[in-house]
Each structure stands twice: as structure tokens, then as C-alpha cells.
Hints:
mainly alpha, two-stranded parallel sheet, Nucleolar 27S pre-rRNA processing Urb2/Npa2 C-terminal domain-containing protein, Urb2/Npa2_C, Ribosome_Biogenesis_Reg
Amino acid sequence: xxxxxxxxxxxxxxxxxxxxxxxxxxxxxxxxxxxxxxxxxxxxxxxxxxxxxxxxxxxxxxxxxxxxxxxxxxxxxxxxxxxxxxxxxxxxxxxxxxxxxxxxxxxxxxxxxxxxxxxxxxxxxxxxxxxxxxxxxxxxxxxxxxxxxxxxxxxxxxxxxxxxxxxxxxxxxxxxxxxxxxxxxxxxxxxxxxxxxxxxxxxxxxxxxxxxxxxxxxxxxxxxxxxxxxxxxxxxxxxxxxxxxxxxxxxxxxxxxxxxxxxxxxxxxxxxxxxxxxxxxxxxxxxxxxxxxxxxxxxxxxxxxxxxxxxxxxxxxxxxxxxxxxxxxxxxxxxxxxxxxxxxxxxxxxxxxxxxxxxxxxxxxxxxxxxxxxxxxxxxxxxxxxxxxxxxxxxxxxxxxxxxxxxxxxxxxxxxxxxxxxxxxxxxxxxxxxxxxxxxxxxxxxxxxxxxxxxxxxxxxxxxxxxxxxxxxxxxxxxxxxxxxxxxxxxxxxxxxxxxxxxxxxxxxxxxxxxxxxxxxxxxxxxxxxxxxxxxxxxxxxxxxxxxxxxxxxxxxxxxxxxxxxxxxxxxxxxxxxxxxxxxxxxxxxxxxxxxxxxxxxxxxxxxxxxxxxxxxxxxxxxxxxxxxxxxxxxxxxxxxxxxxxxxxxxxxxxxxxxxxxxxxxxxxxxxxxxxxxxxxxxxxxxxxxxxxxxxxxxxxxxxxxxxxxxxxxxxxxxxxxxxxxxxxxxxxxxxxxxxxxxxxxxxxxxxxxxxxxxxxxxxxxxxxxxxxxxxxxxxxxxxxxxxxxxxxxxxxxxxxxxxxxxxxxxxxxxxxxxxxxxxxxxxxxxxxxxxxxxxxxxxxxxxxxxxxxxxxxxxxxxxxxxxxxxxxxxxxxxxxxxxxxxxxxxxxxxxxxxxxxxxxxxxxxxxxxxxxxxxxxxxxxxxxxxxxxxxxxxxxxxxxxxxxxxxxxxxxxxxxxxxxxxxxxxxxxxxxxxxxxxxxxxxxxxxxxxxxxxxxxxxxxxxxxxxxxxxxxxxxxxxxxxxxxxxxxxxxxxxxxxxxxxxxxxxxxxxxxxxxxxxxxxxxxxxxxxxxxxxxxxxxxxxxxxxxxxxxxxxxxxxxxxxxxxxxxxxxxxxxxxxxxxxxxxxxxxxxxxxxxxxxxx
Length: 1147
């Protein structure tokens, strides 16, 4: 046992703090009064205790802060508390923020600034800087505290005295000495947070030094560098000295220092920084230090440039950092022409500069004036010695040309061409002089690429220039511009080099575009073949290269380009083709190229040369298709695969649809792709040539694909423009069969049965009967299936829908129905057949239908209420009653947990639900109402006696509630009032998880009962209130157990809110006196600490607000029964209601 804060044991301390937390949570701001002893207890506990007691103290402090109360610390207590929090509890950002804000406020009113300064320097300086780096969000607050104390105006003279003492090398004691002592100690220890704060001190001191005493700045800088040099970590040292040197550059002080007598000393000092200390010279930090020194003292760095470049030669990243800084320096001085000369002297001319450097050089030159660019270009050419290959200059010329903004220059085109042509020709000449030597002697691929890249840049520059000319000179060679750079032999030999292939490919693409820009007819097709033979290239990558220029080409040249690649596009199905069909304009190009390619490669008449007719999508659609039909072609399936992803409904040009349709019709062998494309085409809203539709129908009937045949015939027979084609085709087949006596060919009849079915209204009734008779009387049927439906069922549909008198077919129809009834649950395609039977039920069965027949019909057509009504009205009352009684026998209590029993029960409910929507005669309707009342009364018992372990409990509850809701909506107040009570009882005995899953059905059921059986519900208020409590409990339980998604929980809360609002509309007065108990129960559930998202809590509170409307002010009368926490929570909810929701909807 020992004493802590006046208490006897750790356990007592722990319990007392937790008791304080409980009180703070349940007391209002006005009820809390804080004494000085409490503040002392906080500091003592945080200083001496650990674990749970500390956590409890921190929670107490935060609770007090959240209540808007402030702890009245004395200054000394606040310093102790801040030190403890910074050293022991810095991980708690909220506590640290609160204490810092209090400290910031307190020190501004503290009278003794000297004491504050000393306390900060000796106790809080390092911990504050640690917090500054740990929490970026607190950086402004901490910096404000540090600047207010350390840089207070009181210390201006003290800072000046200290700086002067450094120059005089006579250490003196002054008020700010403790700060500099702390700085030196922490920097020598390698404290990175203090090093990052040092520039603020340095900048403050600079601002205090008189302009005539500029040498004091250098002395202070040397002093701080001396501290930094003691750091073993070289990255920390470089980072610290760089920050100090950047301030010199920022304040423009270096020029004043170098003009002083200190120039030699400063130069030597900076040289020591760069070269004396043994740095890791391949580090990025050292490269950054070199750039800083370059900006401050260019002469020093350029004098030692060769030495620096050797240090960076093994690191591209370091070299990039240094050269980018070098470029920026000369760019700011507008002396970029001199930069290249310096570079050529310091570097080996065979070096390849990093890409980052070239990109930056291109960016800087693109921002220069035309005059300065001319000067840079001429300077580069002067350094390009004919007898020595200088790869640095070649790379810089390439970057310069790539960044040249020709179209943005405000000078005349004639002047631009005149000024640029001389430099262009001179550059090209020097490249030619060097290229042969490089290509033949150098084994270094990067050197080859360097030369070719410059040549590529020169080519694009040339194309930009020629675009300003009224006429473009002819092109004699496809591989090069303005004369040969590489011979054809060299070109072919270089293609084998995989490293150089990409740049060769770019050159070839440029040549292709150049040729298109001049005259597309001069392009040699062999060039294209050679280009695409390179394994890594494709038509898509070629077009990607040319895409920036493609849309600027005339349509004829765009078409020429696509035609050049069409064979490759077709024969390489693995390449990406989306570019070619990305919009209708490009689709026109690919379709036209495909059609012309198909005609040229598949024409069967080569005896004479025929004049080619231009493909014109805008001409008359009939004549356009007639022209295509004159071409006897067999189309490769690879062509049609180009159009499988096209959205045909969005195509506005009928000619495109016709062309693609023609390609699909002539594709061999027939593929699913071509059939699907034809289906998509006829589904489009465009009017197509009748000849095309006729050919499409012929093509379809020959595919033996029943799905394709059925879909095509469905579209054509429903379209008035195309019905004549279906009729003509059907009659043509019938006449052919007559002349050839093909009525004996059962297989042929079955094959065309779908056509006869779709055209049944378009052909002669006698012909139709002949076909039907032959098929019915046949003893054998083909084993080949031409339809998803059996031949017998299609015949039955044709008879029922088309034959005017079918008495002679009654036996056949009745026998066929028996087969249908057996298969009705296994075949989803039978519904259309059953509908045909339902329309002619009385005529077919002539009062001989059985209960099983009617049952099969209703199960299949449970949503066809009009047809079902027509059938049921024709059966007698006894048969109707027997049918219903047989069905409801499956609604058993208790319902056994077996699949067959549950399915039969569900079907019985479904039957009654279907009959509710049907139009019945008077007797049938009276009997049905009796059955419905009886069945609804059973629902409560059915659910209460259902075994809870039932594996399909949720399914049973779902279909029972859906049945009840549908009957209530259909029959409304016609049902007996006792049913309302029975249905309410259903909701009281469900497990919580089932109750939650069925919340929508339950809320809907109670709302319907409120609406249509108000009087009954108002007599059973406790049951309704219990249902509300259970619904709220189910939502909160599911939120606690995290078994449902956030969206489902919010949806359930919304349903309960709507139900509560419905109570207000219908029976507010009946619930006014007792609904408060639902509110109390809800608050009790919330007080258990269930975590809920703000969105869910907001939605659930909406239920409480609706209940407040009913209860009025009575809620406060019952709050005495609640605990303090629950009472406070209820009070908060009631205040929110009165403030924001009480007058909702009121005007």
C-alpha cells in the first residue's frame, strides 16, 4: 500500500477516476464545478501513474473540454502538464491539441516573458519540435507558440548582441544564449526536428542584421555550419546546410557577400562543403547540394565542373538533378546558348543524357522567344564538328526541335520558312555526314537511336514547315526526307536489331504520313508489307502513331490509309480494333475498305479489267444494294468478325447497315457471328432494301438454327414493310411443294413449320390445312429438331390461332394438351402454346376439362388474369369449389419441414392470390371470399405453430406475408375484422432475424390494416406498439451483431418511420397516451452503447420524432422511471424534435 494523490491504493485511484468519468458523462456543463485540487490530481496522476488510471485521466480532461469547460491551470502547472503530455502521452493528439491551445493562450498573458523564454528553451523546446514533426495539423499552432516566445520583440537587441559576439569571437552571456546553447546541443546530437527548425532561427537573425553589417550573416552561417558538421549522418548535414544556403539565395544576399572582402573566404568555405567532406556522391541529397551551390556561386561550380561530372557519372538520377538545375540557372539568365558550350567542355561527347534532362531542356526551349531559339540552334550547329561526333549536341538539337512551337510564333510564315530553312539544311547535312560512320562502325544501339531520333525530330519539324507552303515538293524516297539518309540495304539490315526497331518504326510511320500529305497514290504497297512484318508492330500501333494527324487528313487520304492496312487488320484478329469502330466516321472507312477488299480479292471474273465503282453510302439504298449484289463474292469469316462489337442501333447511315449485312450474308462458312450481326441489323429502326430482307430470309431459313429463324420471322412478320416478303416466301415454298408433291416429305414440312406459323395470317387457309393434315396423319416424325417446341405444339398453335373451323382437329388438340400438361413444369417455352389453348378453352374441351387441366393452366399463366377469368367463368360451381378445396388442403397446421409440403403450400397461396385478381361470377366470388377469410385466419396459427428450427422458415414467412398483403390490397375492407387481429398476431412470434428480414412486409401489412381496418386496430393498441418495439429492436440488434449491410439497416429504419407517420394520420388520439412507452424502450436500447453509424442513427431518430408527434409533451411525465443516462438521452432527442422537427410540414 502506498499513497498517490492523497489516496490509499492504485485500485482506489482507478475507481475514482472512472467514477468521475461516469459523472461527467451524465452531468450538464452547469452542474460541473472544477477545483484547484482536481487540476493537481490530474498532473500528479499523469506524472506518476501508468495504464488504466492514465487513460481515465485523459478521458476526464477530454470530457471537460468537450463540455466547453476550461481547467484553470496556474502557469507552472501548465508547463508541467505540457511537458508530461509531450514526453509521455504525445500519441494522444486530441489531448495534446487541447493543452497546446491552453498554453498558447496563457503565455500571451503571462507577465514574465523572460521566465517563459527560459522554460521553453530548457524544458519544452525539443519536445515541442517532436510534436511539430509528428502532427502536421499542429504545425501552425506550435510554430505560432515558438515564434511568439522565441522571436518576441523583447529579444531584438539580445539577438544582435549574440550575433556580434560571434563576429568578435568573444562569447558573451545574453538573454537568448540559452536558446542557442539548446540549438547547438540538439544539433550535435543529430536531432532532425531541431535541424528543420534551424532555418526559422537563421531567417529571423538575418532580418535583424543591419545592411552595412552583412558580414555578420556569413559569420552566423559559419557558426551554424560548425554545429552541423558534428553530425555523423551525412544526409542530415546536407539537408540542414541546404536549407540555410537556400535562405541566402532567397534573400539575394550572396552577391553582397561575394562583393565584400570575404569573397575568397566564402569561395573556399563553399568548396570545402562540396569536396572536403567524404560524401556518398551518388546520393540525390549531394546532387541537390551541388545545385544549391551552383545557384549561389556559379563560378565556383563551373571551375570544378569536370570533377563534379565525374562524381555523378555513375548515377543517372544524380546527373539528372544536377543538369536540370544547371539548365534552370542558364534559362533564368537567358543564356541557354552558353549552356551547351559548358556542357561540351565538361562531358565526354559520347555520353547519352538522361531522358529527364532532355525533357526539361525541351520544356525550357519551348518557352524561349523565336530569336533566342535561333541563337541556341546556331550555337549547337557551330559545336557540331564535322570530324567529331558529338552526341550531346545531337540530343540537344533533337530536344530543341521537339519543343519548337512553330504554330504559336507571331511572325509571318514566309519569314519563318526563310529563317529556318538554312539551319534545317545545315543540320541535315551534318547528320548525313555522321550517320554512315555510326551505322556501319558503332555497335552501341543507343548511339544509333540518338542519330535516328534527331532525324525523326527533324522530319516532324520539316512537315510542320511544309504545312505553311502553298505547294509541297514531291517525295522521291519513302524511307527518308529531303534525300536518302539510309540506303534500302541499311534499312533492311537495321530491322533485325530489336533495340532499334521502335525508332525505325516511328521513322516509317512518319514517312507514311509524309507520303499521304503529298500524294497517296505514290505509296508503294510493299513498303506497308515490310513495315507490318516487324513482329512487334500492328496496324493499330501505326494508327496510334498517326492519330494526332489523322483527323486533319482529307477523307480520301484517310480511306487510303485504312485500305493500306485492311488486309493486316482482317488477318490479325488478336490486335485491338476498337480504334477503327470508335465512331461512325471511322466505321465508314473500315466498312468501305472491307467491302472493296472483299470485292477485289474474291471477284470470280478476271477476264477483263472493269472500271471500279466508288462505294457511296449516301446513294439510294436499293440501287446501292443492287450494285453490291452484282459482285459474286465469298467472304472470309475473318472480315465479319470486325463488326461483332458494333452497336448497330446507333448507326445513322443505312448504307453502312446494308454493306455489313451484305458481308454477313456472303460469309462462308456460316457462323454464329454473322447470324447475330444480321439479327442486330434487322432490329435497328432503319428501313432496309426489300431485296436485302428477302436474301436475309433465304439465308436464315437455310441455317437450320431455330432460334435465328424464330427471331427473324418474329421481326419480319410484325413489320408492315417486310410482311409481303414473308408471305411471298411462304406461298413460294407451298407452291414448290405442290408442284414437286413434297407434301409427303415430313422433314421438309417440319423444317418450314416456323415460317408457316409466323405467316399463318398471310397464306391460304386451305394450304395451311393441307400442311396440318399431312403432319397430323404422319406416323413418323423427323428426329431433327427445327424448333425449341415440339412439332405437335406448333401445329396446335397454328390450328388454334389460324384455322377458322377446327372441329375435325379436336381430338388431336385434346391429346396434345395432355402432353403439354405433363411437361408444363419442365419446359419454359410452353407458355405461348398454353395462351393459345386458353383463348379457345371452351371450344376445345366443350365442358370436358378436368380440375387438373384448369390447375395446370392457372399455374402456367398466373399473371394472365383476363384469360384465366374467361376459363374459370365457364366451369360449374361444384367443379370450382372442388378445385379450391383440393388446393387449400395443402395449407396444413402444423406445416411439416419438407420441401414438397412447403412448395404445395406456397402454390395454394399463389392460386388464391391469382384468383383474387380475376373477374369471377357472383357465386364464385362469394365462395372465394369465404375461403380467403378462412385462410387469412389460419395465417397466424400457421406461423405460430411453425417449427423454429425449420430450414425454410424465412421462405414460409415471406410467402404468407406477401399473400396477406396482396389480399388486403385487393379486397380492402371486404375482409372480416377478426382477420386483422389474426394477422397482427403473426408478427409477435417471429425470431429477431426473421422479423428484420420481413420488416418491409410487416410494415406494409400493419399500414394496410390501419388504413382498411382502423377501428379494429384502435381497440388493440398494445399489439401495434409491441410490433413497433420489436421492429426497432430487430434493427438495433442487427446493427450490434453486424449481420446486415448499412443500406439494409437504413432501409428498415425508413420503413418503420413511414409506419409511424401512418399512425399519426389515422389514429393519433388512440395512441397518444401509451406510445411514450415505445419511445422509452427505444431510448433504453440506445443507452446500451450499441455502435451505429451517424446515417443509421439519424434515420432511426426519425422514428422517435414521429412518435413525439403522437405523444406530445407527455414524454416528460414518464422520464422519472428512467436512469440518469437514459433520461438525458431522451431529453436530447426531445430537444432536437422541438428545435428541428416539431413543425415539419406546418404552414
